[in-house]
Backbone:
């Protein structure tokens, strides 16, 4: 009789932890050798992914840990407070140039609105409020991570739009650049873009449950990230090409509608100053990959299946309110709805191909003067 102890396969969760730890050590070790750890962690804080990653992890641990629940609430309000402070500061820069009583009143109104938004999640303590919202959204009234995610999405959606309204439709970054006297914002380097994308992928995997509550295949399925076949890839490329003439028509119509309302519009001169034309081919490729994959993972991968196509598209548009006026946001909203339908009919991978392909055309057009 064989008296050797039987070999035991570690559970899927343990294997997930082990794979994540080994992968992280390999990446960090490689970047340490290359002297890139500083830029890596700057990218994590610059895009806010690291605090959000901590929030996602605590939310996943919350069902079995009261301390994780409390920690998640603390981190949530640190993120919300910091974001509100950034929104307020950017609006203050734009209003400071006016120096009128109306400008000071607008800033006071903005502060009160941001405070109200930060206080509003207290309503979710009432089970009746959660149950009512769960009738409209695919949420579990007792799933803690569903609700902290909803609060974060609503904050990131509402706060930029409020700032844009206070500035009469003028993008906050445009006012900041004008006050600073700089010629352009300066495009990030392609390694910085890829570092930011890496943190975004990590954030989305943790938000989808890996490695805390789901193995990697299940987390990828939750995100809608998988190989769609060559037909799916071809569909994504075809959609990206069709978006070019589509938004060539949509953009001027949106501009005309916004002008008719007496609001500021997004000028091509501002877009040149925002992005510049010195990012190079590698920069254009990295920017298209970062936006296409990163933004689709967040809005169509994490947010849309849980909170619906409409809120995902609105949040996607709102996060562009720092750089575009209302006309630009209309175009981004329509593109978000289009990509959301594409995600519903196929998966996030196809939506990312379409998004990245369209952005690549825009970046190459700016780089080589086609547009």
Residues:
């Amino acid at each position: 009789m064989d008296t050797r102890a039987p070999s035991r396969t570690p559970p899927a969760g343990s294997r997930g932890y082990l794979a994540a730890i080994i992968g992280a050590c390999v990446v960090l070790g490689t970047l340490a050798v290359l002297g890139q750890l500083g830029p890596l962690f700057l990218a994590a804080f610059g895009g806010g992914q690291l605090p959000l990653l901590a929030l996602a992890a605590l939310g996943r641990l919350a069902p079995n840990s009261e301390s994780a629940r409390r920690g998640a609430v603390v981190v949530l309000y640190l993120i919300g407070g910091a974001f509100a402070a950034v929104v307020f500061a950017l609006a203050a820069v734009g209003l400071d140039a006016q120096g009128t009583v109306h400008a000071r009143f607008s800033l006071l109104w903005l502060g009160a609105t941001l405070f109200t938004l930060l206080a509003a999640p207290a309503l979710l303590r009432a089970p009746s409020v959660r149950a009512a919202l769960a009738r409209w959204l695919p949420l579990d009234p007792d799933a803690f991570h569903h609700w902290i995610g909803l609060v974060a999405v609503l904050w990131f959606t509402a706060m930029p739009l409020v700032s844009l309204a206070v500035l009469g439709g003028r993008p906050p970054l445009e006012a900041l650049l004008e006050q600073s006297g700089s010629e352009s914002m300066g495009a990030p380097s392609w390694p910085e873009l890829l570092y930011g994308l890496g943190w975004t992928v990590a954030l989305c995997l943790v938000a989808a449950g890996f490695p805390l509550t789901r193995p990697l295949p299940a987390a990828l399925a939750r995100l809608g990230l998988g190989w769609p076949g060559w037909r799916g890839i071809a569909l994504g490329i075809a959609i990206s090409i069709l978006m070019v003439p589509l938004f060539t028509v949509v953009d001027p119509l949106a501009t005309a509608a916004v002008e008719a309302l007496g609001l500021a519009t997004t000028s091509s001169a501002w877009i040149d100053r925002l992005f510049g034309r010195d990012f190079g081919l590698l920069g254009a490729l990295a920017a298209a990959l970062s936006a296409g994959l990163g933004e689709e993972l967040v809005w169509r991968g994490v947010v849309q299946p849980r909170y619906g196509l409409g809120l995902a598209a609105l949040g996607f548009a709102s996060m562009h309110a720092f750089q575009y006026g209302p006309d630009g946001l209309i175009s981004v909203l329509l593109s978000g709805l289009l990509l959301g339908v594409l995600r519903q009919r196929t998966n996030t991978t196809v939506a990312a191909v379409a998004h990245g392909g369209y952005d690549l055309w825009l970046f190459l057009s700016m780089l080589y003067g086609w547009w």
